[in-house]
Amino acid sequence: NRPLSHQILNPGMIVLRNHISIRDQVDIVNICHTLGVGPGGFQQPGYSSGSKLQLQRMCFGRNWDPETKYRERYRNDGSIPPPVPPVFIPLVQSLIQDAQAHLSSANEIPLMRPDVCLVNFYTATGRLGLHQDRDERPYSIRGGLPVVSISIGDAGEFLYGHTRDEDKLQKVVLESGDVVIFGGKSRLIFHGVRGIFPNSTPLPLLEKIKLRPGRLNLTFRQF
Ligand code: AKG
């Protein structure tokens, strides 16, 4: 079992290692499974040109689309995304407070109340190109309200940096139960997922869930 630890990646950006208990990971998987398998659940997002993102995605709180961003209220099937499941709100807020406790000033990562969430699912060939999360309201972006990212299942290689230059990016491997938080000066940091390490889901989790092989990632934001 990995110990709890943390690593400051940049001003306003931290990784909390193993901060989600197996029990909470199981609950998160079950909630995402229940809400994700039916109509309006996980879909492969894409562009009108036909190109697709290399992942499956479901939205809570507000629909996000690669072309229309948060503008369209409805999902492809005409339904409205369910709200962020209420049990996630205190979990996310306590993660921010854990992060603040490791920083010289709590202002580096302000507290927020998540009302939107993107849930990504990556199979062995999944990845996500380098991008900034900048479609939330100016209040949220300018205030540096953090994005809280929870990873479950297979490990993934996460790239980040204040540049689009691939050679200058830093990388960190995110394992099941790890949390990345980026806000404040890092709110607009470029980030992406270069690849997944197949079959790396920890056994104690694998035994308790029916997750198909892959990596689940939830990013919580305040719109
Ligand atoms: C996003 O959904 O915007 C992400 O960057 C997800 C990152 C991840 O899967 O770790």
Can you characterise this structure?
The chain has one domain: Alpha-ketoglutarate-dependent dioxygenase AlkB-like (Jelly Rolls, Sandwich). It is built from 4 helices and 11 strands. The chain has a 7-stranded antiparallel β-sheet, with helices on one face. It is globular, with a radius of gyration of 16 Å. 2-oxoglutaric acid binds next to strand 4, strand 6, strand 7, strand 10 and strand 11.
Terminal CA distance: 35 Å
Going across the major beta sheet, what is the strand order?
1-2-9-6-11-4-3
Helix content: 10-25%
> What's the CATH class label?
Mainly Beta
* Architecture (CATH level 2) name: Sandwich
Concise account of the structure shown:
The chain has 223 residues and is α+β, with helices and mostly antiparallel strands. The chain is 17% helix and 29% strand.
List the helices and strands and how they pair.
Layout: E1 5-10, E2 13-17, H1 22-36, E3 56-60, H2 88-101, E4 116-122, E5 128-131, H3 138-142, E6 147-153, E7 155-161, E8 170-174, E9 179-182, E10 190-197, H4 203-206, E11 215-221
Antiparallel strand pairs: 1-2, 2-9, 3-4, 4-11, 5-10, 6-9, 6-11, 7-8, 7-10
Residues 118, 120, 128, 133, 149, 151, 156, 158, 191, 193, 217, 219 line the site of 2-oxoglutaric acid.
Please supply descriptive tags for the structure shown above.
alpha+beta; Jelly Rolls; 29% strand; globular
